[in-house]
Amino acid sequence: MSFVLSFEGAVPSKESIKNEISVCYGVSPDFIALDRLRAVRGKKKAGGTARIYPDRALMKKYEK
Predict the structure, then answer these.
(1) SS (HEC) of the chain
(2) Which of 10, 38, 49, 58 has its CA 20 to 30 A from that of 1?
(3) Residue 62 in contact with residue 18, Cβ under 8 Å?
(4) ∠4-64-5 over CA atoms, to 5°?
(5) Torsion of CA 23, 24, 29, 31, to 10 degrees
(6) What CA dihedral angle connects 35, 41, 46 and 47, to 10 degrees?
């Protein structure tokens, strides 16, 4: 999945982004892998990609 987020101050941590995604999609943050996170220079926005897995076994199979 791709996402764009707006923020105030510093770019949010990967953990806080995973927590927000988990709330939106109703999954555990442990099953979310952030692939890329890039801040937009000069703006309070960042974009990225993430993968959501249904269980830990599949996540371990595809993630290093």
Answers:
(1) CEEEEECCCCCCCHHHHHHHHHHHHCCCHHHEEEEEEEECCCCCEEEEEEEECCCHHHHHHHCC
(2) 10
(3) no
(4) 10
(5) 140
(6) -50
Percentage of the chain with pLDDT > 70? 100
Q: In this predicted model, what pLDDT tens digit does every residue of 30-47 receive, in sequence order?
A: 999 999 899 988 899 999
pTM of the model: 0.84
Q: Are 52 and 32 contacting, i.e. CB atoms less than 8 angstroms apart?
A: yes
Which residue is it, tokens 């220079």?
A: 41
Whose structure tokens read 């105030």? 8
